[in-house]
Amino acid sequence: MMRKLSLLFAGALMGASAMSLVYGVPGTAANAAGAETYKQLAIFGDIFERVRAQYVTPPDDKALVENAINGMLTSLDPHSSFMNAEAAQDMRVQTKGEFGGLGIEVTMENDLVKVISPMDDTPAAKAGVLAGDFIAKIDGEEVRGLTLNDAVQKMRGPVSTPITLTILREGADKPLEIKIVRDIIKVQAVKFRAEDDVGYIKITSFTEKTYDDLEAAIASIKKDIPKDKLKGYVLDLRLNPGGLLDQAVSVSDAFLDRGEIVSTRGRDPKDVTRFDAKPGDSIDGKPVVVLINGGSASASEIVAGALQDLRRATVVGTQSFGKGSVQTIIPLGENGALRLTTALYYTPSGKSIQGKGIAPDIKVDQPLPPELQGRDLTRGESDLKGHIKGAEEEDAGSGSVAYVPPEAKDDIQFNYALDLLRGKKTDPAFPPNPDKAVLNQ
């Protein structure tokens, strides 16, 4: 399966994360290091100097230090890491939900960058870039030999700066030179449509704009479907890798009018933070079906877990990824930032999903198409080397197949949700009864 990458999500920097952004180091100071610790640090310094002086070729000092730091952090868990200045800026771009660029979704095919689709009303679309175009050169530099991430980085840049793409297009006699001026690209974290008498909302990530985009989507659906005709909503969280914790809380609150959404618990037993829903929901109490699969991680699991535990929605699909930890981003000035796991989160019933995931109320498998059969598309936290073992983690682990068909007609999970909302299918889990919610006391 070709790997798709938008101009925003270069790399998996935000993948499978619930992140909390801070300005400074949270919590109390750690205990002072003992003599043995300083002895170990002296050993590190000695080895570092010997490598610099005696390695067969002169090493890159900066790379040595960064790799040593990341070695220390990855020994903790798969989600703690050091980000140099460039990576930290990438992270800020991702969480903000907008960047300076062209507005195209791309993949790599035959050593060239292939355009999956240009985003509506963006510089690329206005300049005439089409789906299916192959980008052979970027400002005269051959794309062959570059990684997809490298190519994406070259196409990003400051607003109002020009870039020239050399395009190979089927049917064209010769390569096309297309000059484009970069502009602010706002990534659509929420996609939606009126599905006759059902509102369909797909959240692809949790950026700073997700909640606002969700409210706009709900308002648009309400305009398109009369209230007396609207049967309910499908909230699609499949293949959603996560993002900002506060956005997950706000999105959950849009469907809730009471109850604890999530709690986070840190190293100190007293370090517990609870997030509660405010009165009133944005969809006027209409039924909700949430879709999840093995690609639903962290922030998306917070939403699914809250709506499930509070009996506000019926969860359909397969076991979610199972990432129940929260990463705090600690800025380090011009040196970058530290992403450190500082807490685990718990659903309203008091359960940790770390290494376990959210089990759907109604399990509906999505078969793989013939061309993908035999490939392992199962994703789960419990499969990650060095992951924090969850209190409720089971031998079976977390996760499931992370696949969604490109065409709605082939999407069994989506169509099952529609049938539930329209009364064509029945199940004891739908509609759920909020009065029977079992909450953490």
UniProtKB/TrEMBL annotation:
Gene Ontology terms for molecular function: serine-type endopeptidase activity
EC number(s) given by UniProt: 3.4.21.102
Signal peptide: 1-20
Annotated ranges, domain PDZ: 88-156
Gene Ontology CC annotations of this record: outer membrane-bounded periplasmic space
Recorded superkingdom: Bacteria
GO biological process: proteolysis; signal transduction
One Pfam family recorded for the sequence: Peptidase_S41
Keyword annotations: Hydrolase, Protease, Serine protease, Signal
PROSITE patterns: PDZ
Region of interest (Disordered), ranges: 360-382
Residue spans of biased composition, Basic and acidic residues class: 373-382
Family from the record: Belongs to the peptidase S41A family.
Name assigned to this protein: Carboxyl-terminal processing protease
Source species: Aquamicrobium lusatiense
